[in-house]
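Pair request: fold both.
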Amino acid sequence: MSALTLFSPSGVIAKATPLRRAVKRLTNLGFEVSVDESALARFQRFAGDDDTRLAALHRIAEAAPSIALATRGGYGLTRLLDRIDWKLMARSVEQGTRWVGYSDVTALQLGLLAHTKAESWAGPLALDDFGKDDAAGGLDEITPAVFCEAMNGELEAVGFRTEAGFDGLEAKGVLWGGNLTVLGSMLGTPHWPKVRGGILFLEDVNEHPYRVERMLLQLQQAGVLQQQKAVLLGHFSDWKMSPLDRGYGLKQMVEMLRSVCATPILTGLPFGHVPTKLCLPVGRKVTLVVDRRDVFIGWEHTHAHDAHHHDHHDHDGGCDHPH
C-alpha cells in the first residue's frame, strides 16, 4: 500500500469537508492517506504563512512518502521559490516520492526540474478532484484510474485525439510544462528550466484567448517555443466572450500562433482545470507519435524510483480501477 501525504503549499482551504471527502476516496482507492499537520492552516488567502508552508514542504521531503499530493492550487508557491531546499526535494524524489498537482503546483514542479532535473507528476489535486461533491459532478472515472496507474508505476503512456494535419509526427524530448500563467511568471528567473528539444504542455483557467495569446507570444518571442519539438495545448477554460471579440476565440488564437511559430502546436490534451485529467511525468524523456489524429506519449521504465516503493504496493488490495 502506497503512503500518500496531503499538503497545502498554496491557497487556503476554506472548508474541511472536501478534504475529508478526498481522504475517504483516496483511502477507498487503496492508498494509506495522511494529512500534513499544517494542511488546514490559515493566513490571509494562504494555507498558513510562508514559513508554515515552506516547513511543510521540507517536512514532507524529509519523510519521503510514496506520494505527496497537493490539496489545492491558487497562489503561494512563487513566494517560496527562493527559499526551497531543492537538494532536499530532489533527495525525496530519489527515495521514491512523487510530487503531484497542477495549477500553482507548476511553480514547484518547474523549480525542481530547473534546479535538480528531478521528476514530478502533473496530475490531479486532492480538493479539485478527489474532494469534489457529487452535486458538483463528483469524480470522473478516468482521472482516478490514470492516477492509480501512475502512482503504482504502471502508467507507461497516455493518448488523446488532436486536430487533423499532424499525421506522422514523431518527436523525442523532455516533457515539461503546466499552468501557462505560472510558467510565464518564471521566465527569466533562476527557477526557469532551460529545456531545449522538449515537449511543452500548457493549460490555464479564467484567461481570455487574447491573454493566452499574449502569454504564448511572450514564450515565442523569448525563443522558448522555437526550442521545443512540440507544444501540446490542454484546456483553456472558464473565460467569457466579449462583444469586442467579433469572431476571435481560441481557434483563431491557435491559428495566429501557428502562423508565427514553426513548432507543431497540437490541441486536445486532456489536462487543465477540467474534470478529466491525465497524469504527466514532468521532466521525463518521452516519445510522441501522431497516427492520423491519435496522439501517443510514451516513456520507458528506467528510473530507480519507479521500483523503489514497489514492495509497498498491494496490487490485490490497492487501486481498484476499471480497465
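--- second member of the pair ---
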Amino acid sequence: MILKKYHFHYSLIGKFNKPLILFLHGFMGNIDEFDEPIKLLSDDFDYLTIDLPGHGKTQVLGEEDYYTMANTADALINLLDELKIAKCFLVGYSMGGRLALYLALHFSERFYKVVLESASPGLPTEAEQLERIKLDQQIAKKLTISLEKSDLAAFLSHWYNQPIFGYIKNHPEYDRMVKSRLQNNPQELAKSLRFMGTGCQPSLWEKLQFNTIPMLLLVGECDQKFLSINTEMTKICEFAQIKIISNAGHNIHFENTLAFVENIKIFLSPAS
C-alpha cells in the first residue's frame, strides 16, 4: 500500500471474526519475523505483519527523516485507518518493541493491550543518547559498506555474538534465521539504525508513568541488560507486568516459541 511517503509491504491474514494482533519486528527482521508464533496463535487471532522502514520490501519514498520513530508511528496509524482497524492488540520485539511502546504512549486509544519483548523506553539522559548515537553511527557505517551478501553475513555473525543474545547461535534454526536476515538491504538497514536507533529515539521514560494500557514485558533469562531495564519499567508503570522466560536471551519468540506464545495467550485473554 502506498501511503503518503511510504510504500508499505504488509500481510493481513484472518477471517476478521477474531481479535487482531499487530506484530512489529526487530532490527534486521522482516514481515516473516513472527511466522512460528503466528502458526500457534492463528486459531485464536487474526494478525497484521509489516516490513518496517529500512527493512524487507517496504520503501520510504520521502526524505530520510521518514525513517524516524515519530514519522513511522504516524504512518502505521494511517495504515490502520486505511485498513479500517480501529483498535487491536500490539506485539513488538526489540526495535519493534520500542516502536510499540511509542505507539501505546502516543495513540493509547488504538490498542487494547501491548506485549513488549526485549524492549526499552530508550535512554534517559542526553549524554547516554549521544554516546549511543556515536555507536549506532559506527555500526551503520559498517552496514553501508556491506556490498556483498558475505559482508552482511559477517556482520550478522558479529552481531549475534553480543551477550544479550545468549546462546542463540546454538539454536538448530539459527542458520534459517540468518538467511532471512540476509534478504534485507544493508544500506536501508543503516538508515533505520541512524534514524530509529536507541540513541536517536525520543526517551519514553517520563511518559511511561502515565501509561494506562495493560502491558506485558517479556525478557529472556539470559538477557541481563534488558532484565534490568524492564524491572525498572515495572517500578514506574503500574499497568506493566514482567515475565522472565527461561532458555532464552534477547530473541525470545525464536529461542522459546512455546513459552512466548503461551504468555501471549494468557495475557491477551479476556479473563486476564
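Observation on the second member. The longest helix spans residues 126-144.
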